[in-house]
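User: For my dataset I need records formatted as: sequence, then structure tokens, nothing else. Please produce one.
Assistant:
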Amino acid sequence: MGTHRFAVREVVQETPRAVVLRLDAGRDAVPFAAGQAAMVGLADRAGRKPYSIACSPEHAARSGVLEFLIEVGDGGQPGPHLANVRPGSRVAVEGPIGGFLLARMRRRRELLFVAGGTGIAPLRAMIGSALARPHPPAMTLIYSARAPEEFAFRRELAGLARRRQLQLCMTATREHDGSWRGRRGRIRQSWVDAFVEGRSPLCFVCGPEEFVAHLMGMLSAAGVPARDIRRELY
């Protein structure tokens, strides 16, 4: 694990509660596997927090950019470790870390991803990496967020769904104004059953601890063996 220092290219408001931090890594990009994380903070400060890398290794190698999905508070700030971060700021990246990753599989099989909130970050990296393979597997994403505006990378994911590169199921748990035309409420057992039945997928779950525990139970109830479930929580 090494420490790298990169300049910020962009800080983009992705949702009301999260920004995408894009770093100019160039050819010195951190070598990582899809799904891994890194410790991130301003280079001139001691504080660091772990964040999943939100882009695939293939994207980072091609573009020279590392991406992180950073949750922010009511004031639009992520915390002291990234206080007032802006284009041109120097950011330290220590890593990669973590064993939640999309490994090469001996046989081609379907993938099922389940994300809660900003838990989409490592799953987006995995989806991108899987799509970069010569023969991408069939993939499904179940994505839960509090409201429609809190789905990160919504247009990108919808584009993949339109091109039939990804089966997409999005549900808003606290939507209020009635404008959302997608699914509503918490993820249901019947949805999980439908995406698992007859497919034997390899499953990846990421989100808050309670969310992950609940989905692990749902996948088990749907007949997915424990060896076929990978999880990451925050």
